[in-house]
Amino acid sequence: MKKKLLDCAIETRKKAEAKYSNFKVGASVLCKSGTIYTGCNIESSSYGLTICAERVAIFKALSEEKSEIVEIHVVANTKEAVSPCGACRQIILDYAQNAVIVLHNLEGAVKQFSATDLLPYHFKDKDLTYDK
Ligand code: THU
After folding, report:
1. Ligand 1, atom nearest to 87 Cα
2. For a substitution probing ligand 1, which of 23, 56, 82, 102 has the most ligand atoms within 8 Å of its CB?
3. Which atom, in ligand 1's list, is nearest to the CA of 52?
4. Cα separation, 131 vs 73, whole angstroms
5. What is the pLDDT of residues 60-97, one digit of tens each?
6. Which terminal CB of the chain, N or C, has fewer other CB atoms within 10 Å?
7. For helices 2-13 and 53-64, angle between their N-to-C axes, nearest 10 degrees
């Protein structure tokens, strides 16, 4: 399954809309149901609207079924295994806190983390308190 998830991420990376950064990222997400969702980064001429590959894949999974996300793979043409941005780390914690996150480059470098490895002492929904 790990090889399949990497292959899916590599394949979807080719669809990246990355004409501003020219940095293409691919991601794949495995749900407990067995379904795989993929995502690539999609950039906007209004740069801040850009969305990362990981979040595209996670949001596709969340919008399609209520099945726990168990594994996430990310790949880019980096020297070492790609490192997800802070925003994606927060979303992984919010929606895939028990997932295994496997990070790759195109040359076979691979690193595996938990969500809390990637974002220790993170903001959590239980931290949300409301002033009266
Ligand atoms: N990018 C991702 O897709 N995932 C990350 O975790 C890091 C950054 C994308 C966003 C943008 O399109 C490009 O890489 C350069 O930042």
Report:
1. 6
2. 23
3. 3
4. 39
5. 999 999 999 999 999 999 999 999 999 999 999 999 99
6. C
7. 110
How large is the angle between the packed helices 53-64 and 86-95, nearest 10 degrees?
20
Which residue do the tokens 């938990």 mark?
114
Give 112 Cα–ligand 1 centroid separation in angstroms.
19
Q: What is the largest CA-CA distance in the chain?
A: 54
Is any ligand 1 atom within 6 A of the Cβ of residue 26?
no
CB atoms within 10 A of CB 117: 11
Residue 100 has pLDDT above 90, yes or no: yes
Nearest-atom number in ligand 1 for the CA of 83 is 6
Tokens standing for 69? 């996300």
The answer, yes or no, to whether any atom of ligand 1 lies below 6 A from the CB of 9, is no
DSSP 118: H
Residues 12 and 21: their CA atoms lie apart, in Å, by: 17
Confidence of residue 122 (pLDDT cuts 50, 70, 90): very high
Residue with structure tokens 């490895």? 117
- φ and ψ at 30, to 5 degrees? -105, 125
